Amino acid sequence: MFKHKPTFINKYTSFIPFILISALTFLIYEQTYAPNGIIFSHNDFVGFLFLIVANLTLIVFTSYVQRFDQKQTKTRVFLLYALLIVSALSVFNLLIMPMDQVINATTKDGEVVQLLLQVTLADKFRSLMLLFISASYIYLMAIVLPRKEFFRGFVLLLSYAVIAYALGIAIYSFVTEYQVYVDLIKIGYGNANIPVPEGPYDNRNTFASFLLTGFMFSIFLYFFYKTRKRRYFFIIITVPLLVAIYFTFSKTNMLLSLLTFILVFLRHLLLLLKRHKKRFLIEFVISVVFTTVFVLFRFLPALSQTLLARGLTNLVPLNLLEIGERTLFARIELWRLAYDLIVSRPRAIILGDGIFINRVLYDARIVLENPSWSTTGYGNYHSGYIEILSAFGLVGGLVYLIVLIALFIKILIFVKKMPAPGYFLLLSMLVFLTRGSVESIMILVFKTESILASAALILPYFYFSNLKQEQKMRTMEIIQNASA
Description:
The protein has 484 residues and is mainly alpha-helical. Helix content is 74%, strand content 3%.
């Protein structure tokens, strides 16, 4: 695999089909779930079919040219078989799924009412096509692509692209929503019902999620590069992203970005303590002074009337946790509705309702509870784990859990053998698992937001895996040459 260096053309053009497939996959999912569509109406069947045929044709062509490498690791072989099993069961599920289903739903008030769930042939076809797209995309990106010589170049290109996009939407927000930022500083998030930045999206959580993904890719490049200037450059890039994330007051994204930054900085200080004590002392004193100033101006009554103190009080209100609790309770209610829908039918418990159809049926359940809660026609689960159960049932949920456990074990091995990459992968894994708890974030499936969020974990993992394998092969070559 690593014996021959790729030519210039192969290195920089071979991954173009993967870029095109990714772009088409993103477009298909956004087109499917956008209320008004992206390039045509979201219920335009001919347009949907055109995108599907174009993407599947490109996938078949790419799969033929970029052949499956038989020398796969056990993890990827397991992933391949799991993908085939879940896909086959999902197709079988679509075939046996009734068109009309009547279930007993329990409302929040304890009232049991009957709900008619209707599925059309068009719904089944969309679900089947999206299943093929998802399975093919996972196959190419997680099984085929990591074994190619140009894979690491692809990962770096994607990292730069995502970071550039995140910075772009942050700057766009700073410019177009300048007054929103000013109002948050002057009035405060906890003092009035004022808007928060949403960037180019219609939802602050989506905006914050893309910013967090760009933030994680920037941290990845910080661990990737060895020179001090480049490492500092990518840390500096995280600052505007952190600011934009914080001002969205998207609690989970705020917490994860700040916690990740702090943990990376603490590791940085520990390394300085061992190698560069003078630099450690300077940076430690600066961080202590910064923290002290923040605490004094935020919590000391004698300074509460200063301009800085009022701004900090507005940006860090004492009732921030209380606001977060209200948001969490609202999502718990949505999860109750999803659970109510899943357990209402034995088939759905075991095999789920399939991609796309699960969101259509979930929306019907939400509307039954409160019509004002849904405006898109597709229910948002606000939990990747619950959406996996809803789409693929206990079978798919079990497979997904096994994949996560296997990945976590592999990362723990990385921490021992390659501490720096392992530290990043461990942070990225914890961020991903937490995001998946309160947002519809899953591994490489369902929406652009989810695919890119998982890519911030999966692609660096395969990147460092390839790097470790290459180092191992070079060591073996040196030993063989020495013995010869």
